[in-house]
Design goal:
By secondary structure, this protein is an alpha/beta fold. The protein has one domain: P-loop containing nucleotide triphosphate hydrolases (Rossmann fold). It is 37% helix and 28% strand. A hairpin with a 2-residue loop joins strand 9 and strand 10. The longest helix has 19 residues.
Length: 250
């Protein structure tokens, strides 16, 4: 099943078209990478899809737990309620809240209420956070903050189960490896793999080719606001794609 279909997406910032006519799709269960250098338009595209940035034109049809919805005509809270968890590149957690307070805030926002059993499951799934329950989010490392932000995917899955028990969320990640040491990147990848085993679908913007090669089934190459091409798993391993990535002729 095709979970997300984006067509002719155009996004403006300060009068400039930072995304122009973008089209991509994500099927249920896939991990799709959106590759591009800094300034390619990846963040603007993902922010438009989750209704944090208005789109000038286009559509983003998402097959939610109760039926299709055009995300470009939704509000941010409705995007979440329809089953999309967004993890931004910058400030993915609330710095002034403890780990446990952050989890409870997300649980309350999703209507889960008191959920000690759910938290116990989360800490078993995310053992790095178990000993940091009383630690402020702002004192966690960058990688730990991203891992903490990934917990909202599990909480969203629990919340959506009441509408459709077989349905799993779409996680949209904006450059999850940005600024992280290789060891922490491996830990983030390990947590993503755990979520994939739960059936979670991923659309992930990235600058690092190595990150995409480690986990993506396919991807798209973006440059100067446009999607240049779709990439298969074998394409992601190609030297020609690296040359295209950096804007060199093949």
């Amino acid at each position: 099943m095709m979970l997300l279909n984006i067509n002719d997406l155009t996004v403006m910032r300060a009068g400039l078209d930072v995304v122009r006519g973008a089209a991509l799709s994500v099927a249920a269960g896939e991990f799709v990478s959106l590759l591009g250098t800094n300034g390619a338009g990846k963040t603007s595209l993902t922010e438009a899809v989750v209704a944090l940035l208005p789109a000038a034109r286009g559509s983003a049809i998402f097959e939610g737990p109760t039926g299709p919805v055009d995300l470009l005509r939704s509000l941010p809270w409705a995007v979440v309620r329809n089953g999309i968890a967004y993890v931004p590149q910058e400030n993915p957690v609330f710095r002034e809240l403890t780990v446990r307070e952050y989890l409870q805030l997300n649980a309350d926002a999703l209507g889960l209420g008191p959920c000690r059993q759910v938290f116990d499951e989360l800490f078993e799934m995310f053992p790095q956070l178990a000993d940091r329950q009383r630690q402020l989010g702002g004192t966690l490392s960058g990688g730990e903050q991203r891992i903490l932000a990934l917990t909202r995917v599990v909480l969203l899955k629990k919340a959506i189960a009441g509408l459709n028990p077989k349905w799993v969320p779409l996680a949209i990640l904006d450059e999850p490896s940005h600024g992280l040491a290789p060891l922490m990147i491996d830990k983030v990848l390990a947590q993503i793999e755990i979520l994939r085993k739960l059936g979670v679908t991923f659309l992930c913007s990235e600058q690092q080719m190595a990150f995409a090669r480690n986990i993506a089934g396919r991807g798209y190459l973006m440059r100067s606001g446009q999607i240049l091409c779709e990439l298969s798993a074998s394409d992601l391993q190609s030297r020609n794609v690296e040359r295209m990535y950096f804007g060199l002729s093949t």
